[in-house]
Each structure stands twice: as structure tokens, then as C-alpha cells.
Design brief:
With 90 residues, this protein is α/β, with parallel strands linked by helices. It has one domain (1-86). It has three helices and five strands, in the order H-E-E-E-H-E-H-E.
């Protein structure tokens, strides 16, 4: 997860869809969709990192977790998308 968000080529991808949301969140973060905590022991919140890094590049980035959120992307201009649809692997 860290390599996908922080390193090349992952950090320059415009669309990332998959599962494994728990790998992106610290163990102190409660996932509101799954009602389970993240699994990162280093305390990093890679989703927040991704959003902030994209904003620093003046990109319109969106993090989504549901099919409803995915469908709504057509209504709002977005440059970059991170969609993690399952707490665990897909």
C-alpha cells in the first residue's frame, strides 16, 4: 500500500481501484463502512496522505468506497480517483 501511494509509478496513477482498505489506514482508525480498524502499525494514514499530496499538486482527487460514490463521479469533475471498495482484499 505504501509503495502504491508514495513511490513511482504508483503515485502518478490517475485511477486506482481495488480492495485492502485496512492496509491504508492506521490501527487506530475505525473504518465506518466495515466497522473494523485499519492494520497499519506505523501510524500512517495513506489515504489522507494520498489526498493531501494530490491537493498539493493542485489536482482534484477523490477517495471512494462504494458503488454509489463511484456513480456520482460523473457529476463532479475529478482528476484522480482512489477507490478501495473492501476493507480486506477483493
Amino acid at each position: 500500500a505504501r509503495q502504491l501511494v508514495e513511490d513511482l509509478p504508483g503515485r502518478d496513477l490517475k485511477v486506482i481501484f481495488g480492495g485492502g482498505r485496512k492496509q491504508f489506514r492506521p490501527s487506530t482508525h475505525l473504518d465506518p463502512v466495515a466497522n473494523k480498524t485499519g492494520s497499519r502499525m506505523d501510524g500512517k494514514d495513506l489515504i489522507e496522505y494520498w489526498l493531501k499530496e494530490k491537493k498539493s499538486r493542485n489536482s482534484r482527487a477523490k477517495f471512494i468506497t462504494t458503488a454509489t460514490e463511484l456513480a456520482s463521479l460523473n457529476k463532479v469533475p475529478v482528476d484522480l480517483e482512489l477507490g478501495l471498495y473492501n476493507h480486506n482484499h477483493m
